[in-house]
Design a protein that fits this description.
By secondary structure, the protein is an alpha+beta fold. It has 11 helices and 10 strands.
């Protein structure tokens, strides 16, 4: 018995794997090397820092599987990783993916990776490699999971780490496209219990903030306006992520009435019987990214973002912890 036959009897389709690799190669920007990707540092950087992030899309994959749509989940993966990198002022440069499947269907895998490739192209990041693994017996035949890894670069003197935030700074919230890729364990339970309809609204891909935020950073530098911190609103919602973008001795006062909440969050809140505060501790509730910056920069930044078709609102301000009772996040 050949090794290929033995592997097939164990449930692994080697031929499908080879077919998937060929389809993926056609969609990847560059695959240098047979065992690993060989890359160059971007030219022109004086004192570059490498910024990395890795993430997945969680159980949103089950919504994609239930709807039979695999063309958008790749964007979720890229956004979850690349927009974390951008929080430190870095430009995403290279991306790798890992796709695990119960049974390898070459066309389905190519559809997933094609979405990753399109999202990378949209933000100017190269998809340089990845891995597809078949797990028969461990996963159901049509089950899949995703993970991604993003590498970006930033000049040392342009690194953003929250230390430039000052009391009195304002907080801008950037509009989300929908649920993004967090809170889907609860979403799936609501769907399973018949309290929430399984619909394409649940699958709206995570917004890609990287190009708009990078252009905003450039505009602020040209105008000599200060940005103190950036926050990507992911797991833990608005309440837990906004404080991550500012200094440890400061807190955020947020006014939820200052932005419109998309209808999908109203539907989830009713189905789960959650208050607004409880929702904002789990979901983005319409704010997918936040910027803390000096007050004089607020109107300039809002206009710059709107020119990039990203709606933004002034949603709060930065205050000393003692004025917030020692709390890092307070709602008014």
């Amino acid at each position: 018995m050949s090794s290929r036959t033995a592997y097939a009897q164990a449930g692994v389709d080697v031929a499908a794997g080879e077919r998937a690799v060929e389809l993926i190669r056609a969609g990847a920007a560059r695959l240098a090397g047979e065992f690993a990707s060989v890359l160059e540092l971007p030219a022109g950087l004086r004192s570059p820092l490498l910024v990395t992030a890795t993430d997945g899309v969680g159980t949103k994959t089950e919504i994609a599987r239930g709807l039979g749509r695999l063309d958008t989940i790749g964007q979720d993966l890229v956004a979850m990783c690349a927009d974390d990198v951008v929080c430190h002022g870095a430009r995403p440069a290279y991306f790798l993916d890992y796709v695990a499947v119960g049974r390898l269907d070459a066309e389905r895998v190519a559809e997933i990776v094609g979405g990753i490739g399109r999202a990378c192209a949209a933000i100017g990041c190269e998809l340089v490699g990845g891995e597809t693994a078949e797990h028969p017996g461990l996963m159901e035949p049509d089950e899949f999971d995703l993970a991604g890894f993003c590498v970006g670069f930033v000049e040392r003197d342009e690194l953003i780490d929250g230390s430039a935030t000052r009391a009195g700074d304002v907080v801008l919230g950037l509009a989300s496209s929908g649920l993004h890729s967090n809170g889907f364990s609860l979403i799936r339970r609501l769907v399973a219990d018949g309290k929430l309809a399984l619909s394409d609204d649940l699958l709206t891909p995570t917004r890609l903030y990287a190009p708009s935020v990078l252009e905003l950073l450039g505009e602020m530098r040209r105008r000599r306006l200060r940005i103190g911190g950036l926050a990507h609103v992911t797991g833990g919602g608005v309440a837990r992520n906004l404080p991550r973008g500012i200094g440890p001795d400061l807190g955020v006062l947020v006014r939820p009435i200052s932005w419109p909440q998309p209808r999908i969050f109203d539907s989830v809140a009713r189905a789960a019987e959650l208050s607004g505060a409880e929702m904002r501790a789990t979901f983005n509730c319409g704010i997918g990214f936040a910027v803390a910056l000096e007050p004089a920069a607020a109107s300039v930044a809002i206009q710059a973002l709107r020119e990039r078709d990203v709606e933004a609102w002034q949603i709060g301000e930065i205050l000393p912890l003692k004025e917030l009772g020692g709390q890092r996040y307070v709602e008014a």
